Amino acid sequence: MNDVVTGVLETARRAPGGVAVIDGRGATLTYGELRRRVLAVAGAMTGLRPGDGVLFAARPGPDAVALALGAVAAGGMLVLADPGLAPDVAAARLATAVPAWVVADSVAYTLSGPLRALARHRGLSLPHLRDPAPGRPVRHLYAGPWLPGVPRDAIPLRAVYRASSPHPAPLEGAGPFEDPGPPGRDGPAARPDQPAVVAFTSGTTGRPRGVVHTRGSLAEGSASFGSAVPLAPGDVVHTDQLMLGLPALMAGATWSLPGARPFARELAERGATHAFCVPVRLDRILREDDRLPGTLRCLLLGTAPSPPAVLRRARAAAPRAQIWSVYAMTEALPIAIVSAEEKLACREGDLLGAPLPGVAARIAADGELYISGPQLARGYLGEPPLREVATGDLARLDEQGRLILLGRKKDMILRNGVNIYPGLYEPALAALPGVAEAAIVGVADPETGDEEVVLAVRPDEGFDAAALRRALPDRVDAGALPDRVEVLPDFPRAGRTDKLDRARLRAAVARHTGGGR
Predict the structure, then answer these.
(1) Is residue 365 classed as helix, strand or coil in its secondary structure?
(2) Please, what is the angle between helix 4-14 and helix 215-228, to 10°?
(3) How far apart, in Å, are the Cα atoms of 173 and each of 75, 104, 139, 142, 280?
(4) SS3 content of the chain, % helix, strand, coil (to 5)
């Protein structure tokens, strides 16, 4: 199967009574109902050409899964609305991926419109959903009750679902409803090469880079993951990660979405057999509750390195479960998976494991790892297709053909599983009044491997630490806000060009405490 939407719908057609999704509150959705809803959404979202942008701002849950798959089935490319983006960054992204539709919760419209100032005060910053592309026509589909900020001509999701029932009611705001037809019909013809989702990574506010995955590349990634971690009907996969949720649905397993309850308690209540967690978060969880339920057969760690201390703690908490560490990047989902036992036994670098089936790994002359294969994203939005991707990591292949990570080539910082790129924010911070120079560095915790994000500032006349703090949310995404600010009289330099020496700066802020703010 080389199309993710068709794969999920075919699974649903074969086993309509199985539980497809458990939401954050524990409510369930069957595969048969998921299929009906996906086809209903696809039928309602008329006028989409393959690859047209669909700005997506729906909270994780059954409706979000149906909306996402339905929008892609209709030909759309999901553009995720990140509520933590600084306004300039969000605007630049939408300029590169202009949406034809907006699919969102009604509360998201309110928070991006009438309550925008209140939302910003609480750290939420959504693009203006009502009019995300000024001057261009955009259609709207919303979940939940109508709230202020929702356009009057927007299509309510409840009406879409109602119209797909055996006796459909008229669907306001849309053209004639297209009946999804008999059980054998799975919507519009599958196009494995159709762009399905764009995920933005690094770049400047003027030129963001969007990684475009197709329906085919997502399916290939799901199949590659399933070859290493088999899934079957009856399994319960607890995760908020698409990389695990899609394979679960394609295999007929249950995708359990995290809610507000403690991690271990939710796993126990839902009978989870598989779970995913970011290593540093798992470390915090297990310091408070050092046992995980006996139903757990597989615990996956990813989005950040898995330090030995965390792996050992995980093994003690779930002695009957297999602990896996997943290596992946936005452009290639996934790349390699390795067991905790293998990882702990490796003494020469960070063992990532053998490349998964279909994944090709190449080590360049400078030691940087390059990846290619059918799971590779089609490319970056507006750029030529990718044949391989540079990971930014330095690695080698051992005698068993396994990848061993030797270090990072990029200046990327990892905190709580989030990639933070200093160059995205430093120019805007250096332009603030009273700031002569600004640099963001990460200081690693030796036990967890997680990094503290430190903003180092060289002050100029009129520097005001309090004013700098107040300005940060307008210049830095919520997920990249610094943990602390250090004011230094000068920055360390290197080379004939006096280039900033980040390694020495990192060491300086790690031991500097007197200037912290």
Answers:
(1) coil
(2) 60
(3) 19, 16, 9, 12, 46
(4) 30, 30, 40
Instruction: Provide the token pair at 104.
Output: 């969102």
**CA pair distance 300, 292, nearest whole angstrom:** 13
Decide if 154 contacts 116 (C-beta within 8 A).
no
Contacting residues for 12 by C-beta, under 8 A, at least 6 apart: 20, 31, 32, 34, 35, 38
Round to whole Å and give the CA distance between 286 and 316.
10
Which residue matches tokens 């750029």? 383
Q: Which of 505, 305, 331 is nearest to 406 (CA)?
A: 305
Give tens-digit pLDDT for 334-356.
999 999 999 988 877 789 999 99
Task: Looking at 368-485, list the stretches that DSSP marks H as alpha helix, in order from N- to C-terminal side.
Answer: 426-430, 465-475
Helices (H) and strands (E) in the chain, counts: 16, 28
Three-class SS state of 373: coil
* Each residue's pLDDT tens digit, 20-76: 999 999 999 999 999 999 999 999 999 999 889 999 999 999 999 999 999 999 999
Q: Which amino acid is at 118?
A: L
| Integer Cα distance of 256 and 267 in angstroms | 9
- Name the band, by pLDDT with cuts 50, 70 and 90, for residue 494: confident
Tokens of 102: 């907006």
The rounded distance, in Å, linking the Cα atoms of 98 and 81 is 12
H helices within 340-388, ranges in order?
Answer: 340-345
Give the C-alpha separation, 96 to 303, whole Å. 26
Helix residue spans in 77-182 (DSSP H) = 87-96, 106-112, 116-121, 157-163
CA–CA separation, 248 vs 254, rounded Å? 6
